[in-house]
Amino acid sequence: EAGVAQSPRYKIIEKRQSVAFWCNPISGHATLYWYQQILGQGPKLLIQFQNNGVVDDSQLPKDRFSAERLKGVDSTLKIQPAKLEDSAVYLCASSLERINNEQFFGPGTRLTVL
Amino acid sequence: AQKVTQAQTEISVVEKEDVTLDCVYETRDTTYYLFWYKQPPSGELVFLIRRNSFDEQNEISGRYSWNFQKSTSSFNFTITASQVVDSAVYFCALSNTGGFKTNFGAGTRLFVKA
């Protein structure tokens, strides 16, 4: 079974530029999560999708971050414009269902904002 | 509001020692789910265990065991006879009744020396 795929693995941009990350979850997984993990900290949930609908985006900085999951499969997270404090690893995870389910994580995208 | 506290930032042990990683949580929900994940140096988080709030039975899986105590809001993780391959960052996580709002602790970095 293929795992959660993410691309790119690394990205370096200047502040105020835009960047997009892509995630393809495990086939059949209804729930998709985007996390931000700053160095030395635990993952922080940014947004959670159930199929193609958003069920929680309370911690997403909506003035600069956006995410979509068209057709309920793969997803894109965008930052526009980026700030220095956005430097982090962006993790995508998926689970079969929303409730009481283990999350399978992708390898992450390491973003450096200069 | 939910919160997960992992007070131990780093632990260093010698191979074959037993080690316990502490996790204390806060939630107003009566039904919730607790998880442990491992993040090895490669970076990809790996699910270890989930527990729902109704099930206070301790669990053992090989060298791993978990002690869930609702009375003290703790969900501690013990590795028996630690091995070098156990070196990683371990995260405790909590999600609410509906499977929303997964909160991770800051993690405990475990070093196992040969």
Explain the layout of strands and helices.
The complex is a heterodimer of chains A (114) and B (114).
Chain A: E1 5-7, E2 10-13, E3 19-24, E4 31-37, E5 44-50, E6 53-56, E7 65-68, E8 75-79, E9 88-95, E10 104-105, E11 109-113
Parallel strand pairs in A: 2-11
Antiparallel strand pairs in A: 1-3, 3-8, 4-5, 4-9, 5-6, 7-8, 9-10, 9-11
Chain B: E1 3-5, E2 10-14, E3 19-21, E4 24-26, E5 33-39, E6 46-52, E7 59-61, E8 64-69, E9 74-79, E10 88-95, E11 103-104, E12 108-113
Parallel strand pairs in B: 2-12
Antiparallel strand pairs in B: 1-4, 3-9, 5-6, 5-10, 7-8, 8-9, 10-11, 10-12
Structure characterization notes:
The complex is a heterodimer of chains A (114) and B (114). With 114 residues, chain A is mostly beta strands. Chain A is built from no helices and 11 strands. Chain A has strands at 5-7, 10-13, 19-24, 31-37, 44-50, 53-56, 65-68, 75-79, 88-95, 104-105, 109-113. Chain B has 114 residues and is mostly beta strands. Chain B contains no helices and 12 strands. Chain B has strands spanning 3-5, 10-14, 19-21, 24-26, 33-39, 46-52, 59-61, 64-69, 74-79, 88-95, 103-104, 108-113. At the A-B interface, strand 4, strand 5, strand 9 and strand 10 of A face strand 5, strand 6 and strand 11 of B.
**Number of beta strands of chain B:** 12
- Name the quaternary structure: heterodimer
Structural class, judged by helices and strands of chain A? mainly beta
Helix residue percentage of chain B: under 10%
The proportion of residues in beta strands of chain B is over 45%
Number of distinct helices of chain B: 0
Structural class of chain B: mainly beta
- List SSEs of chain A in N-to-C order: EEEEEEEEEEE
Radius of gyration of chain B: 14 Å
Biggest interface, chains and residues, is: A-B, 28 and 25 residues
Unreliable runs of chain B: none
Distance between the termini of chain B: 41 Å
For the biggest sheet of chain B, the summary is: 6 strands, mixed
Shape, per Cα inertia axes of chain A: globular
**Average residue-wise pLDDT of chain B:** 93
